[in-house]
Each structure stands twice: as structure tokens, then as C-alpha cells.
Amino acid sequence: MTDWVYSDNFKVLPKVTSWLNVAGLVCAGLLLVTYFVLPVEKTSRHYLTVGLVVAVCTLQVGFIIPLGTKPDQCHDSITPNSMYSDTSCAFSAIFLLLGGFGAIMWGFLRSLSLHLQICWNVVPGPKLYWGSLMAGIGVPVVFVATSTALTGVSYRFGTTCLLNHENAVQDYWGPILAFAAMSTIIQFTTFGYCIKVYIKSLLDDSVTSDNLSGLPSYNSSVRTVTAKQAYRRIKKVVALQWRGILIVLIIIANVVFLCIVFVTMDNTVQAARKDFRKAQSWLLCLVINGGDKHKCLNKVGNLVKNEATVMAALILLSLNGFWSWILLGRVSMLTGWIDLLRRKFIRSHDFVSVDARRGATPDPKNYEMIVSPPQTAYSPGPNIMMSPREDRKSVTFSTTSNVDRTSKIDYFGPSAVYTSPALSFSTPRPPSAGQTNGREWGPAHTYAEGSKPGMI
């Protein structure tokens, strides 16, 4: 039907959106690879962010599949192909529906997590983690499987298959719009709470002016500290999460916009089928002009959405990959990739000593004390005076080259007796040992001089 109600330029739109999704998939895919390769201090990744990016990639694959398969949309002259007659139709529809519902679901979970942190001061734990995984993956799979089985998909709009009209609102479009509405309500409730805390902190700063003594009262001081602490905590969370908040709002807006456009067009066409009077002027124009659609395009305003609105919905949905890269990407990711490639392909030229380059040998005795190499006997010159021999102990050095390493060698020699000098203070001594006058210190006596006359 699009060939009759839109101009010839509309045929170029599916190709343009497909190539935009290719570029967006590259950006989102590179972001996922960065999340899995680089450490968390470089990417600040979070499981809610990863799930949202995966959903965006899935959504874009649904638009890219027809670019490679180039499917035939018509089964015969009046019937389009469906998922039962065309494999490309089935896969493109499944990826598109899964990605759209997944993006809305992960956005809802992210809004809920942020609301719990800011408004209720609840730290996300393992329960929220596993609950988010089951909801973010399980809920879209259940709704997509149910809608495709009960409603079916076919070529309705462009080269990507979409749900048929029967039961589509109850099975898919209604639930996805409900989760989008809940996510939006939670998000704006969180914003309202942030504004309330900020205004309260400003008012608490001025509440001390009511005290006539000029000093802050106890109650006002307590309220001021509490409000400022809450404001600092909220400010810290928002500073860390503002990128995720913005990407969630953008993706929800784009998906909801496409849903509203398609549902409106679908309902209008179904209404025209039931009441041909709504399409009577357009049909008469085609008959009068011999089937020339260009002369009758001004008669289809009450049947379908205008071409500009449809183009805007498809193009905005194709830009989600770019928005993910722009808002979730960080400069630290670039530096992380540079450091990773530098470690992989550039060898460092740090100084390494020769001993460190030697490989470790399996002989454990090499780690023991090394015996000194053979030494030659030293003979003193004739002008050198030597101490008497009887006061020295003879020490024998081994001059053989073959040393028996299994023998016990006495490296320290015989023990010597140490005689402490008379004025040595290296050992504890009583306090009176060093006093020569013999006077002992008595705690009950005083040795202070008395005051002299005339002194005050």
C-alpha cells in the first residue's frame, strides 16, 4: 500500500535507515567490546547499561537484515509475504520486536534502580541484579513469542516485517507502551524529588534568620545538615547517572514515537477497510486519472500519516546507536584502548640486570650461601709490623678448588667472651650506681631553696 499513498522518494527511505543502522550498530558494538575488554575503572560499566546497549544492537539488526537479503515483499499481486513464506521477514521482525521491547524494559529497570537509590536510599544488591536480569531478558522474550504466535508478522511498512493488526495492541503495543509510561512516570517522580530536596536545602539555609539572638538554633542546625546531606548524596548519584538517564529518555521517546505512528496508521487503514467512504475520494481520483498516484497524493491525508512524520520516526529510531556511543562513551575508554594496544604491540625497554636475565636452575643448593672462591696466601712485606702471634687464633682457609658442599662449614668460628667496659651504659644499672656523693633521692624531702627577704 505504501507504493500508492507515498511518493517515489519514499522507496529510498528504507535503504537510508538501514545504512544508518549499520553505522549505529558499529558504534554500539564497539561500546560493548569496550565494556568486555577494558577494566571497569576505564568504562564505568554497569549491568543495566550493558543490557540497554545489547537491546539497541538487537533493534538495529532488525533493520539491517533486509539490507543483505533484499527480500521480495509481495507473495502475489495482492498479498504480502509473511513469516511463514519468507525467512527474512521472520528474523527481521523478531530482532526488531525483541530490541524495541528490550530497550523499553531495560530503561524501565534503570529508572526504577535510580529511583530506589535517590528517593529511598536503597543500595542495589544481588536481589535487584538477578531480578533485573530475569525481567530484562524474560519479559521481552515472553511478549514477543506470544505476539508472533497469536498475531503473526508480515510486510506492512517498508522492508522490515511488523505485527499484523489482529490482537497486536493487546499482545505487544499495549504492554510496551505501558512499561514506557511507567518508566517515564518514575523518572519524572525522581526529578521532582531532586527538585524538592534542592529547594528544601535552600530554605533551610535561611531558616536561622528567625532566631533573634543571632545564633543558629539547635533544631534549625539539625534540619540544615540533614537537607544538605541529602542534597550532596543526590547530587553525587545524579552526577554519576546523568548519561544513563538521558539515553533512557531518548530511546524511550524514539521507540514510543514509532509505536504511536505505526499504531495510528494501522488503525486508520483498518477503519478505511471497514468504511470505504473514508477512502472514496482517493479511489475516485485514481479511477479518474487512470491510476496515476502522483495526482492523488493530496487525497490520502485522512488514510495514512504524512511522509515527513514517517521518515522522522524511522530516522530517529536509527540514531539510537549513535546516542549510545555519544552519551555512554568516555575519554577514559580511549586512553584505556591506547594503553592496551601499547602493552600488546610495543615492547618496553626497561633496564634488566644480567642476574635477573639468568634462568632459575633446579638445583636448590644454588640459593644457599656461596662459598668464597679460592684465594692465594698473602705474604706481608718486610716493612709491615704484625701483632704477636700468641694473641691471635689461627684460622685455616681452604685453597683447594674442589669444595665439599655437603660438609658442615663453621662460618662464624669459636665464640668469644665479651668484657663490658667500666663506663659502659649498654646494660641496665640502678639509679644510684653512678652517684659518687652517696645521696639518695627521697620523695618525702624537698630540695627547693627558701624565699629570701624582699622577694615577692
Could you characterize the architecture of this molecule?
The protein is mainly α and about 450 residues long. The protein is built from 13 helices and 2 strands; from the N terminus they run H-H-H-H-H-H-E-E-H-H-H-H-H-H-H. It has helices spanning about 1-5, 10-35, 40-45, 45-70, 85-120, 125-150, 170-205, 220-275, 280-290, 305-320, 320-330, 330-345, 355, and strands spanning about 155, 160-165. A two-stranded antiparallel sheet has the order 1-2. The longest helix has about 55 residues, at about 220-275. The N and C termini lie far apart (about 120 Å).
What structural category characterises the helix and strand content?
Answer: mainly alpha
| Biggest pleated-sheet summary | 2 strands, antiparallel
* Helix segment tally: 13
Unreliable stretches: 206-225, 366-372, 389-407
Got a strand count? 2
- Give the topology string: H per helix, E per strand: HHHHHHEEHHHHHHH
The averaged pLDDT comes out at 78
Main attributes?
two-stranded antiparallel sheet, 13 helices, 456 residues, mainly alpha, 57% helix
Topology at a glance:
Elements: H1 2-5, H2 12-37, H3 40-43, H4 47-69, H5 87-119, H6 126-150, E1 153-157, E2 160-163, H7 168-206, H8 218-274, H9 280-288, H10 307-318, H11 320-328, H12 331-345, H13 354-357
Antiparallel strand pairs: 1-2
Helix pairs in contact: 2-4, 2-10, 2-11, 4-5, 4-11, 5-6, 5-7, 5-8, 6-7, 7-8, 8-10, 8-11
